[in-house]
Each structure stands twice: as C-alpha cells, then as structure tokens.
Amino acid sequence: MKKIVSTKILSKVISKLKAKGKKIVLCHGVFDLLHIGHIKHFKEAKTHGDILIVTVTQDKYVNKGPNRPIFSLNTRMESVAALKDVDYVAPNTFVNAAHLIKMLKPNIYCKGKDYKNYNLDITDQIKKEASAVKSVGGKIIHTKTELFSSSKIINETSFNLSKEQKIFLNSIKKKKEFNSDSKILNTMNSFSNLKVLVIGETIIDEYVYCEALGKSGKEPILVLRDMYKERYLGGTAAIAKNLSSFCKQVTLLTNIGQKSEEEHFIKKNLQKNIKTVFLRKKKSPTITKKRFIEHINKTKIFGVYTLNDQPLDSMQEKIFNKKVLKYVNSHDLVIVSDYGHGLISANTAESIVKKSRFAAVNTQLNSSNLGFHVISKYLGANLITINETEMHHELRNRTEDRASLIKKLSKKLKSNYTHVTCGEDGSSIYNYTTNEILSCPAFASKVIDKVGTGDSMLAILAISLYKKIDVKFSMFLSALVAAHNIQDMANKTSYNKSYITRAVQSYLK
User: Fold this and answer.
1) pTM exceeding the 0.70 threshold for the entire prediction
2) pLDDT at 288 over 90
3) Which CATH architecture has domain 7-156?
4) What is the Cα–Cα distance from 105 to 25, expressed in whole angstroms?
5) Alpha helices (H) in 190-331, listed in sequence order
6) Half-sphere exposure of 143 (CA within 13 A, CB side)
7) What is the pLDDT of residues 317-356, one digit of tens each?
C-alpha cells in the first residue's frame, strides 16, 4: 500500500474507510526532526481509532524562523511514513490545518498536551482547528505522552546554528524573562499599546522581471523582454506595514506626488490601523524605484528612478513642520527613515529629535544623494541605525576598526544607542550610557534582496528599546526580521507579530 498520497486522493480514501465503519484519527504538524516524542504521540493517537493519518506542513508555511525547516517536505513525509503506526501521510495544501480538517473530516484530531492552553497560541490556529473539528462532528484529543521539542534538539545540534549563534542565543536563554514561551509571548504583546509615528518618504518598489534576449543587432546594448512586474510598498510605508501587527496605532507621515497618482495603491496596501497623513509635494511624482530583474536567477540588471529630490519649498516646509509638531506630541515614539529625497530638512530633523519622547532614525546613502545626505542633522536621537559602509563615509575614515568608529559616531551624533549593520557579520550596538558594545550574529542563510532590510531592523529595534526590553533580546528580534525580509524581493512580504513570536520561541527552546 502506498502511504504517501495527495490530500485529494486521501479525502476519497477516508470516505471509503468511513463507509466501512472505520474511525479516522488525524495528526498534523511540521515534524522537522522526527524524534521519540513524535513516535509515542502517533502510537497513542492510533489507540483512539482504526486508521491514523498524518498531514505535514509544506515548507513555505513553516513559521519557525529563518533556516527552517531543516528537512524538505518530501523528506519529512518519508520519515513519518516509515512508522508502522501511520497508515497514510499527505502534504497539507492549505495555509493551516483548519481547512484541511474540514476537507478530510476526521473522527478524532490529536494534538500534544502542550497545545491544551489556547492562550499560549499567538496564531490562534489551535482554536480554529478545534472549531473545524467540531464543525465536522469530530473530537479533539490531547495525547499524554512525554514532551520533546524538535526545535530544541535542532538548536542543540549544528543543523542550523553556528557556534557564534549558539553562544548568543544561550546568553539570552539564561535570562529568566525569556525562559518560557509564555514569557516571550508577554514580551511580544507588550508592544500593542504603543502609538508609533513613522516619518519619511514613501517609495513604490517596482520590479520588472525580464528575459535577456542578447545584444542588439545594430547597437552595443543589452536587449530585454519584459515578462511581468510586481509592485510593493517601500520606504516608510513598508515600515508602517511591518509595525501594524505589533502596535495598535501607527501613523504614517509621508509625501506623495502632487497629483496623488499612487494614493489609492498606497492606502489599499496598508492595514486598517495605519493612519496616513500625506504631503503632496509640488512638481513631484510619487517616488518610484523601478528595477529590472533577470527572471530566472533574480539578478538585478539596472534601475530607473522616478523622483524629484529637490528640497520642499519654504511654504511646504512650514506646512510639513506643522504636521510634524502636531503628531509628534501625541505619539510614544517616532521612527524616521530618511532617504535623502528632499522631504526632511535640517530644521525639520532638529524639530523631530527635540520634540520626540524617543526618536529612532535611519538615513540611507544611495546613488542620488551620495555626498549630500548626512545623518549628523539628527543630533541627539535616541537610536541611530546605520550601515557600516555609511558609518565609514560619515566619519571619513576607511581603516579604523568598527568598535572605535561606533563610539566616535555616538559621540558625534550624541545618540544613546548607535546601531551599525554589518551584512553577513550581523550587527553591533553601542549603549552610550553603559559604554558597552553588544554584537548579534546574522541569522539569514538565503539572501535574495537586501532592499528594506535596514528599515525592518530599525522598526522592531526601536519599539523594543523604547519599552526598555533587554538589549540582546532586542538585537535578536532585529536580526530575525532582517533574515525574514532578506529572503524575498524588496518588501514583498511583511513580517508580523505571529511569525516573529513563533520564530523567537523556536530559537530559544
């Protein structure tokens, strides 16, 4: 008998088995590293019925953080199918098990005893699964077998963590406020009451996927055929999106084109708890950064930017400054991502820092502002995030080591926290108050596109430090969101509280 089948075939098999009076038991999970806990769970589950079916989460739906699952879907299914107590194995073709339960209609749905407390499930999927079981006339049973953790076993081996990553994670595990799933969940939920103001340019990232046809017959140029295109919210709009699942109230203060040509697209792609305050910049389009991508290996070929990076005129600057003052006072913290395209003047920057309870800032050098855009106009910001290359540029120093430069930058900018991102080397943060530098390794293994990564790190780091959460834990959060962001094109996929919480819980097992 072939054990591994599709869910479509499995549904028909179950109908036939039920017609013969057989009781169907369903187990569902990731089963990334099959262990004795799984084996005992399946054995007990089988005692509740006649046929044991196990469905396995597809790779793309495994939400245990970057670099997971360790083993592919096929390998995980083959491992489960090798067990004698298991009668059928199928891949879950849905995002969650609730849809699967309604399709397969099992008599019994078995979960481990660690899933009894629904309040610890940030995804709310267990509640949905229980409701789905009830809707098909089934019953949910929690097995009583000894608990083991695939994530803990994986973390203690060298499957997906380097020595440096293990040392860093172990230093966090020792802290009592992060030694259980419930405590981690409480920490992540603590962000919900924050009122966050995000200021800076909104950017439309347009990715045109092309096929390279070759050299033109008459001119020395590369000829491409466009295949399809995708558009994503970038810049500060992406920051607001990323924060929306963590914080109940997010305000986006940004500029768009004079003709408001992208306003509908922006609002359509923002969550409902994000309030937008637009400045329609005179004689300007909404900033669009178009990049042409070779569609097979996703290599960027070249970019075309549509923008007006001239400063606001005096009248619009006054209007914008009034908006800044109006909203800064009513928010807990302000996050600024300044791309140097003319929205934020030195006077506006000074006002933001001076009036904010907590100001977190990221400025970015790019092809259009190199040599003209500096982070030094944000003197006194509580948190500064900057790329290591940009730090060398800001200090006009090519050779000095990172530790020395980060302290010099902090002194120059009068910033309490100075955070420097260092690519595959992770990131470092200097706390001026304690005169301490902490470093966090990178957790990304698959780098697709770095666009938006610095902004992602800034947002989560800012709300965590504002809440005075442990700096190492805050750095870890920023590393996880960076790893999530960097494995997709631009800001195509936003991170959310549910995903990040599950990832943190998984890595801290």
Assistant:
1) yes
2) yes
3) 3-Layer(aba) Sandwich (3.40)
4) 10
5) 236-243, 263-268, 314-328
6) 25
7) 999 999 999 999 999 999 999 999 999 999 999 999 999 9
